[in-house]
Input
Amino acid sequence: MRCPSLLSVSATVVLSVVPTLLIAQEIDYARDIQPILSENCYQCHGPDRKARKAKLRLDVREMATAERDGFHAILPGKPEESIVIERLLSSDPEEVMPPPKSGNKLQRGEIALIRKWITEGADFSRHWAFIPPKRPSVPKTTRTSWSRSAIDHFVLSRLEQEGLAPSPEADRATWLRRASFDLTGLPPTSAELDAFLADQSPSAHAKAAERLLASPSYGEHMARYWLDAARYADTNGYQYDRNRDQWVWRDWVIHAFNTNMSFDRFTIEQIAGDLLPDATDQTRLATGFNRNHPITIEGGVIDEEYRTEYVVDRVVTTSTVWMGLTMICSRCHDHKFDPVSQKDFYSFFAFFNQVPERGLNGFDPRLKVASPLSVGQDTILGNQIADAEKIYRALLLETGGSHDVLARWEKTLSKRPRPTWKTGVPIRMTSEGGAELKALDDQSVLASGKNPTTEIYDLLLTKNSRKPMRAIRLEALMHPSLTNGSTSRGTNGNYVLSEFEVTYKLADKVHRVKIATAEADYEQQNYGIEKAIDGATGKAGWAVDGNTKKANRVATFLFEEPIPAEAAVRVRMIHSFGNSHQIGRFRLSVTGDQSASIPSAIQKALSLAPPKRTTTQREQLRNYLIGQFGPPELVKIAAKLTSLRREKAGAKTAFPATMVMAEKPGIRMTHILERGEYDKPGEIVGANIPSFFGSLPQNHPADRLALAKWLTGPDNPLTARVTANRFWQQLFGLGIVKSSEDFGRQSAWPSHPHLLDWLAVEFVDSGWDVKGLLKQIILSATYRQSSRISPGIHTRDPENRLLSHGPRMRLDGEVIRDSALSASGLLQPQIGGPSVYPYHPDGLWMELNNRPGYSRNYPHPKDPKNLYRRSIYTYWKRTVPPPTMATFDAPEREFCMVRRSRTNTPLQAFVLMHDPQFVEAARFLAQRMIQKGGSSPDDRLRFGFRTVTSRVPSAGELAILRRALNKRLAHYQADEPSAKTLLGIGSLPRNENLNIPEHAAYTAVARMLLNLSEAITKG
Output
């Protein structure tokens, strides 16, 4: 009787630099044999009991070597009597393994390797990644002078085994450029280069590394990698893909890296910060990591189905990020390659199954907490207020702020006539959404007909020929034709006025009116009237709880400067919330009276007898009187004090609610789900780690905190290795384990396994010091090597797995964009805060994510500064990720990703040459070349080249640039309109002091520089 079939699957062979056909040396099962069996045999003869054929298991020695009716699949020491060898060598298509239909076939060398292994006793060693790392001995090498650290000894030892030598050290400027990109995501400035090159001390590299690690840009750069892993986005995903506010958690990540939070604490707070005995709002905020997943708002979905998907997402993300395991393979069945059973999957699932969330609209629990980047600001504001109050009180006494003077000022104010409002129907009114606007008898305007999801009313008011205009009053009025007889056309009777814009035209010139203050008789919580004048046209705005409080509402908008008489005034009422949340009936009135500036709170205080005023009213009135009648010094400090108090009060409510983790009351039972389907519960399981790792301590609750402590504890063999490997990947382009997302049996064998273990142990022993580990690597001789490839090495080692030269790779899209902004001088250094909206193709959002009732145009920013923030702050819509960065292989962020692809396509060059962001950056780089580069063209070209590449151009390169400059200068001198067109690209105006053809010619050269391979490559 023959052994049953040894079926295999067709899969991509995971190649390693480590030769697997080293017959002459001692066989290592985990390195040499297991990858062959895993690739060709485990699908049918591996861990998955449901898929196992003939009850034969080849991944466990006792089962693989057991007697089966007088035969052995593997008989240690006797390959001729091992059925495995017989079947591998068979020419019978019914007998040979793998079967022909699988598409797999072992090479003769692989079969010989298996034969030799069986001959040596068929020893089964445990998979290397599942054994806790121990600090290996540092190997001795022949070249004793090259190494700078233990890292280099491991690398050099491997090179010498392969008969190779390391590359020469890169020049100092190249090292600084490489280190700057790797630690901050930005190139070095010319001043930083000059300072480093001038420092010839032995500690120059270490000092430069410490400076880079201390930069706020370090945390922003490191956080970018973490956002990929955390699947962070500014929208919810799925088909509606609406906005979410999770950026405060992003600030937490930036702050954690910049303060060098130990990686074990970084892990514990993100997985279980809410369960810590000393939990704070900041540790609870950290748990937003596992609330970054997509969430559906689509009506009709099955709640439990999607809630289950959210928990599965956490299992996949946590196991990938900290363990490098493909646990998702065990959702429906036992893992076919790794010893992770379906029970293990759902035991791990149980850790995350206690969150009190829903599948539909599952945004809770949420927590309103300040960004850690703002921590300390409250104390600073408090001190500033105390100082201002002292000055205020002293000036009040010195300048006559006595009771008699205040009473006299109040009497003067009381004599001012109340404002007279002039009401009228706009002489022209249009609805951009297509609604019909009709004037009623009371001079109000009623919208009817088409009811778009978002709306803009564009209104031209009657010219005010008598006197300047100081304020506009808006009345939102109820009408029977509107939703529930309310003031709104919205689905629930509420409206959100996103922005109230006023402009005027005088002498054919249009002026934007700055609204100094706005007041409303009622404001919905978090939807105050001030949000209708903040310049943002997003979801926020003035709302009035129209769904529960049906009433007429009034808002008054006071201008900072009066609109001149005879001006044509235009009003735009923008409603961009969606769901048709626009005012359905409104009336506009204007006034030129100075008394219109008196706030309603002050008017109310004036109407009361002094004894009947509250303390707050007396304080408000006194401050107002000082502002109106007091001497300049007192007015100034009173205004500053009011501003500081307002800033401090606003700081508490300035941050949106962030989704966080929490535990629901009681226990939600966790079941093994048959075939992974939410509605097929099977056996009940408790929270636990995969069984082949052992189990959690029995004296602690089996919750997320226990899981987090195990992940960073001494019994976990993966977290330190996986994390150190990803840091290595960030610096060298590939990890020591190439498959950084998979450390299981299907993973690539480490190129330097002992080095990886040394790094992992060093990382833990340092107290999980991230900055310390990165510093060690970038100061190593391995990292300092030139990236120039010696003849023949590319053929032998195309991916530089042997590390015979320094890293050279195309930069990520975010780094490329930030580098261009840095070179141009446009980059805004502000750290943290909400996401911003840089340049974006018009209509792309609507084209790719246009859902009735939920569509939203890309909100191009009003403030140009938002165009030039670092790319980490770019608004990330999952269904339409930032196209510039997507062109350079940025992910959609729908799921966890710890390794990006890296491609080179013609479209990338097109983006660098034609994207408005890069054209404008080139324009401002050209301006810098002209103004700061020197007086001669050659000096200016050298300045631009060095700004972009961190080196001085050669004579040949300079000659090419000079010819290009002269050619473009001649072109633009002959065609100045083309020059103006080029210099008009971008939000910021051109410098009027520069010669137009010359500026355009230098801009053309700057575009070339920003498109150089060297400009977008780390090398």
User: Anything to note?
Assistant: The two ends are 62 Å apart (CA to CA).
